Amino acid sequence: MDFNLPEELQLIQQTARDFADRELAPLARRLDREERFHKEHWAKLAGLGFLGFLIPEKYGGAGLGNLALVIALEELNRACASTGVTVSVHNSLAGGPVVKFGSEGQKARYLPKLASGEIFGAYALTEPGHGSDAAALETRAVLKGDRYVLNGRKAWITSGAMAGLVIAFATVDPSKRSKGITAFLVEPSFPGFKVGRHEKKLGIRGSETVELVFEDLEVPGVNRLGEEGGGFAIAMDSLNGGRIGIAAQAIGIAQACLDASVRYARERRQFGRPIAHFQPVQWKIAGMAAGLELARTLAHKAAWLRDQGQPHTREAAIAKLHASELANRAATDAVQIHGGAGYCTDFPVERYFRDAKVTEIYEGTSEIQRLVIARGVLGDLP
Q1: What is the DSSP secondary structure assignment for residue 93, as one 8-state letter?
Q2: Could you read off the pLDDT of 66-90 as tens digits, one per residue?
Q3: Which listed residue, of 80, 139, 164, 186, carries a Cα 20 to 30 Å from 269's Cα?
Q4: What average pLDDT does the segment 49-64 reach?
Q5: Catalytic sites, residue numbers
Q6: Topology annotation, domain 7-120
Q7: What ranges do the domains of the chain cover?
């Protein structure tokens, strides 16, 4: 079994690494402090082909698949997790569903714009009262003539205020729960589309997170994605891809924690020698390194399975669960290794600590991942 990356993927990895070090890392601290996304990076990412990993070449994308996306995301998130999650959502949760479930007309209309970076993509499933219980969402969709009218609110939407395309979910019949949920391709220019509250966050501050408000939002019938009542399946399939992307984000954060800890442990002297000589520090670094080896293997396997069209729900959940918990352990240990300096903004580990936490929450909490894994192992229960 060959665990070496093919030459094409090595090139993607190196390209992403160079871009992350040259463009993202120098600005990450400032963007976190200013709580803004650096849109100038978007055109450069598009030029590298990083906004169309899942989009076929005929629509202007790279068509390289989920494993290539994961490898790039690991590098981008190592430098700036805010940019990383924006790229992840754009590829896996916005572009991915259109590629997989869209009509030819929908693909021709939206995919070239997503791949080129002309528009940002967003994904609107979560609601203020319904996070983990997605089947209970309350946003309503009523068919009136040749269009649907949507009413409801969506919460925690990454890139929601700057998106040119939102994959939005609403129910045509609440009594049907998951069987009533339907997916729609929503443009911000549609009547009734409003941006609500901008969230003030602990971490990932350079990524925009907002509430979306649909007040008699008019969506043309041709913008329904898939069949009526088929939206829940689209949402869950898309989340499988999204969870792999967040696993990659967590890996990037954990790698940044390891890199920073190694540098500091070699430079910082106590009791007459670098603290890298002390066993408590060594064990923390060893734990990060061992965890990263496993996390990468799990994420790459899940991405490969998705690319092959094979079942991967459990594998995606395992990858996200392990990687996100690793990122939080690594961030805690990195701050501890840095001591008082790690608690101050002079060193980046305090940002890694804040950024890591959300990887255990979005795209399904760690508790939900454990439920998914358990169901995959137990199967149908009597």
Answers
A1: I
A2: 999 999 999 999 999 999 999 999 9
A3: 80
A4: 98
A5: 363
A6: Butyryl-Coa Dehydrogenase, subunit A; domain 1 (1.10.540)
A7: 7-120, 122-229, 232-378
* Packing angle of the helix pair 313-338, 366-378 (nearest 10 deg): 140
Take residue 275 and report the two structure tokens written for it: 């603290």
HSE toward the beta carbon, residue 322, CA cutoff 13 A: 20
pLDDT-derived band of residue 382, with 50, 70 and 90 as boundaries? Answer: confident
Q: Residue 72: left if φ>0, alpha if ψ -120 to 50, beta else—which one?
A: alpha
The pLDDT, as a whole number, for residue 1 is 67
Packing angle, helices 349-357 and 231-267, rounded to 10: 160
Alpha-carbon span 188 to 193, nearest angstrom: 6
Model-level pTM? 0.97
Tokens for 102? 């869209």
Q: What kind of fold does domain 122-229 have according to CATH?
A: Butyryl-CoA Dehydrogenase, subunit A; domain 2 (2.40.110)
Instruction: Please provide the average confidence, as pLDDT, over all residues in the chain.
Output: 97
> Is 216:269 a contact under the CB 8 Å cutoff?
no
